[in-house]
Specification:
Layout (H helix, E strand, L loop, with lengths): L1 H6 L15 H14 L4 E5 L7 H18 L2 E5 L3 H7 L3 E5 L2 E6 L6 H8 L36
Parallel strand pairs: 1-2
Antiparallel strand pairs: 3-4
Helix pairs in contact: 2-3
Length: 153
């Protein structure tokens, strides 16, 4: 058990109560527990939901490492397309309970995204930026150092 925790860089937390661990640490403990069962397949249900970008990367790197080094199939559901493109060699997109896309990440184009996510209530396509953990600024915004006003008098 300690070896599995060491592999996921959380052995130092082995004696801590689970409730004191961060979300990322809890996810890594769950992966270590799964590894103890010597699985042929790991099913990871939204493994990075509610994690900050750094912990999301650590968890996804761990799952990818397990897949590549151990040959264990990892099946996961993700809602961030950039993460799926980065870590997955096959992406299956579903809408209304049906498979509408099944292919490699490089084929997940705008049309495929439209099939998966559809449109909003106004008929507008869903922006892929909404499904991304990437942070990008199109222009620099000057910071102001003026006095703060109370929001409520």
């Amino acid at each position: 058990a300690v070896a599995a925790l060491e592999r996921l860089d959380i052995a130092r937390t082995a004696l801590q109560p689970a409730g004191t661990l961060s979300g990322g640490q809890q996810q890594r403990v769950a992966i270590a527990r799964a590894m103890m069962q010597q699985p042929r397949v790991i099913l990871a249900d939204e493994p990075i939901a509610s994690l900050d970008p750094l912990n999301a990367k650590v968890v996804m790197d761990s799952l990818q490492d397990i897949n590549l080094r151990e040959g264990i199939t990892v099946v996961t559901n993700l809602h961030t397309l950039d993460t799926a493109r980065t870590y997955c060699n096959r992406i299956i997109g579903m809408a209304a309970g049906k498979v509408v896309f099944d292919g490699p990440p490089e084929e997940l184009n705008r049309e495929a995204v439209r099939l998966v996510y559809g449109a909003d209530s106004n008929g507008q396509e869903i922006s892929e930026a909404i499904t991304s953990t990437s942070v990008a600024f199109s222009r620099k915004i000057a910071a102001s150092a003026g006095p703060l006003e109370p929001a409520f008098p």
